[in-house]
Design goal:
The protein is an all-alpha fold and 191 residues long. It folds into 2 domains: 92 residues, Orthogonal Bundle (Rna Polymerase Sigma Factor, Chain: A); 74 residues, Winged helix-like DNA-binding domain superfamily/Winged helix DNA-binding domain (Arc Repressor Mutant, subunit A, Orthogonal Bundle). The protein is 78% helix and 0% strand. α1 packs across α2, α2 packs antiparallel against α3 and α2 packs across α4. The longest helix is centred in the middle third of the chain and has 36 residues. It is elongated and about 65 Å long.
Amino acid sequence: MLLNDKDIRDKEDHSLLLQVAKEDETAFAMVIARYRKRVFSFCLTFAVRYEEAEELTQDIFIKLWQNRTALASVDSFADYLFIVSRNHLVSYIRKRVKEEIVTDTAALADELGIPDLQLEVRELQKVIDDGIARMPAQQQTVFRLSREEGLSYEEIAAQLNISRSTVKWHIIAGLNALRRYVRLNGGPEAP
């Protein structure tokens, strides 16, 4: 059986990954050298600035190092790296969008200088914070990791050692409870 270039690269990668899983920093440096430009180019398509793409690239490789023991079971590192990079970028974009929305809402209230609007925004935020604080502990943790830290369901599941479906259930139940709480405690009418 003849091996094509992809098969050869996959075999070389697998050999390197086995070494990385055993904390071989030299092998990890070789992985970085082999894939850094590809990851950086991918990050650059989503980042606003060059420096952001650099930071995202570093974050992805740090995440790989932190989860290095899982690398021993990876068959196609290029595919695995794409998925890790994509998930990290999705989390980054969610967090950035959320920060912009929160910043824009507060900035809009301040810019307009409408005291009533400023008061409404503060009061609504207090009702939301109170509603989150009343959630059961596990649900509250999952909800905060998702909404405040921008983690994906997979990242939350891994961090809390629970299933993805449990994470999803906590998010849905948390959102429903929060909607009811806001409705009952003076928030705007939700659709």
